[in-house]
Design goal:
By secondary structure, the protein is mainly beta. Helices cover 6% and strands 48% of the residues. β8 and β9 form a beta hairpin. The longest helix has 10 residues.
Length: 165
């Protein structure tokens, strides 16, 4: 195959070359169907979304409660297909015994049990978080108890992985 015929196929199948990068029309992407070797039931082998950037998390004492962010906030995300990977590092200050919630997600989560993450307050308090709605995660201690807003006081770090629609 010649380079010209490869480019023609790319353009005919919904792709373009923009400034040296391959760009796909909406609904198109990289098709991995030639490797359909999974043992489960596959719904798609098309990688049709990739994005990375920064997000603005809201950390609150209670669902929809008052903010406990008190300083520097660094939060990034990467989305590949339906999978969203979040990282955050923020300074928090609270004496509230209300459960800690994280919202402000860059993409709504699809719900279900596959939405989870890990949280640590500067290495002294650890916990897990689970989706409490499509826009919010509730945080729990490692023993399953409530991770309160006061537990988050100091430098809070976390990673959350979830699926979006």
């Amino acid at each position: 195959m010649s380079r010209a015929s490869d480019v023609a196929k790319l353009i005919t199948n919904g792709g373009t070359i923009v400034d040296g990068n391959i760009a796909f029309a909406d609904g198109h992407g990289i098709d991995f169907s030639a490797t359909s070797d999974g043992s489960g039931t596959m719904s798609s082998e098309l990688l049709d979304f990739y994005e990375e950037g920064f997000w603005s998390p809201a950390l609150t004492a209670g669902s929809g409660g008052s903010s406990i962010i008190s300083g520097t906030n660094t939060a990034s995300y990467t989305r590949m297909g339906r999978l969203v990977y979040l990282q955050l590092r923020t300074n928090c200050s609270s004496s509230s015994s209300s459960q800690l919630y994280i919202s402000g997600l860059p993409f709504a989560n699809a719900g279900g049990n596959a939405q989870h993450g890990v949280i640590a307050e500067h290495g002294t308090q650890g916990g897990s978080c689970y989706a409490s709605s499509q826009t919010e995660f509730a945080v729990y201690n490692n023993d399953g108890g409530t991770f309160t807003a006061s537990n988050a006081s100091g430098v809070l770090r976390g990673t959350i992985i979830y699926q979006t629609s």
